[in-house]
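ok so I'm stuck.
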Amino acid sequence: MLTFDFEKPIVELEKKIAELQKYADEVQIDASEELKSLQNKRETVCKQIYDDLAPYQRVQVARHPNRPYTLDYINMICDNFVELHGDRRFSDDQALIGGLATIDGKQFMIVGHQKGRDTKDNIKRNFGMANPEGYRKAMRLFEMADKFNLPILAMIDTPGAYPGIGAEERGQAEAIAVNLREMMGIGTPIVCVVIGEGGSGGALGIGIGNRVLIMENSYYTVISPEGCAAILFRDAARASDAADAMRITAKYLLEFGIVEDIIPEPVGGAHRNHELAAKFFKEKIVKHFDELSGMTSDELKESRYQKFRKIGVFNETPESGDSSQE
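replied:
not stuck anymore, here's the structure
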């Protein structure tokens, strides 16, 4: 499994645990106490490291190739899932999937970005970067959910919408803009969750919800730290500095009111324990859907509208002696 530089103390402890377990098995001795002590130490060190991650380190965790993706969460939290295909205009975009599912006996429409696990799958999924037909497919499913009064769960995990020539020729910006407009008018509850990367308009294209949640080690931003560093510092290698300045991780997004809740992850990140990550994920989304279930269609639309109207609002304090802003 891919490990990061900041995880070296954890890796060293895991190596010691494996070596001790192997030795105990070979000589047939009881090393349970020593193993338990090392495992407890590993848990403590892992928690200390992950509680104190810098913003760019969380960006790295959000991109971990073993992190749970949309289909992983669907398989773990849904009783069944029927995938629906195509935008009825051009093709079926595999970078953005969706369909009907049941969670604890309740029907949902689920839409989300999907990355691949290996090179072949990533080419098929276009590394989670959707084309216009992906966003049009998502909008078709949102409209279906609205028609049949189904709550919508959207899972965001993309570095951004695909910027290729074909995507631009087929109206990438228009497809995303239509989704932003039309999602405001959906009359059923929408909960959006950033499960990994939340990149730019590619994320926002399915991100207009009554509630926007974020996994503890995910990020949500208008531009990648590398892109920001390349523009501001003329050096993409300064991505860590850009991430520090951009305030793109969960705790800052909660403070700014961009997200309503943070979904905790297992110690060491969701990539270390998919099942526990799914458990935390399910608990939070069920809670938020329950809170929205009593609202009327008009109330849902209005609350969604007001949520996004408030983002970026600020007050200016006039300088001493300046009465022009009073």
